[in-house]
């Protein structure tokens, strides 16, 4: 019987607690209008309206600052017109894998992104196309198996 009284008592306490938490019920019980104090809300930064994927290629975007340090250096060299460390930098990229958007022959050029610890060119590249150097560039870390569009 003591257990039953305990449960009943708990129910009364919970019911009273819920009533005290409800502004409308509390106002009805006391006959007074209750006001609620609004606390200032912090403005949450909105997500960027920039798309996550390039609408032209369907490839995910990557910001230049997210590239490895060596990739950022390669972008600077491309913009400056060189000098490049490897003889094959700036040669035509054929897009045989057809991962990048189809373009006329010799549209794309490829550039090596140095890979620390590699004795040769490694697998990382930046491929750019368009009339201006760096106008449309893509990054691959896996030797053309996948690409990310470098956000202009």
From TrEMBL:
The lineage of its organism: Bacteria, Thermotogati, Deinococcota, Deinococci, Deinococcales. Residues 23-59 are annotated as: Disordered. SUPFAM superfamilies: Microbial ribonucleases (SSF53933). Residues 23-52 have a biased composition (Low complexity). InterPro entries: N1-like, Ribonuclease/ribotoxin. It comes from the Bacteria. This is Ribonuclease domain-containing protein. The keyword Transmembrane helix does not apply. Gene3D superfamilies: Microbial ribonucleases. PROSITE patterns: PROKAR_LIPOPROTEIN. Keywords: Hydrolase, Nuclease, Signal. It comes from Deinococcus oregonensis. Residues 1-27 form the signal peptide. Pfam families: Ribonuclease.
């Amino acid at each position: 019987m003591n257990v039953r009284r305990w449960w009943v008592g708990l129910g009364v306490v919970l019911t009273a607690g819920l009533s005290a938490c409800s502004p409308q019920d509390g106002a009805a019980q006391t006959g007074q209008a209750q006001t609620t104090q609004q606390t200032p809300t912090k403005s949450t930064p909105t997500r960027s309206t920039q798309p996550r994927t390039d609408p032209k290629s369907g490839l995910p975007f990557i910001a230049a600052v997210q590239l490895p340090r060596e990739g950022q250096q390669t972008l600077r060299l491309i913009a400056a017109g060189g000098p490049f460390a490897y003889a094959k930098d700036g040669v035509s990229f054929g897009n045989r894998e057809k991962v990048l958007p189809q373009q006329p022959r010799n549209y794309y050029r490829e550039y090596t992104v140095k890979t620390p610890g590699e004795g040769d060119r490694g697998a990382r590249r930046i491929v750019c196309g368009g009339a201006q150097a760096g106008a449309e560039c893509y990054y691959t870390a896996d030797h053309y198996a996948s690409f990310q569009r470098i956000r202009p």
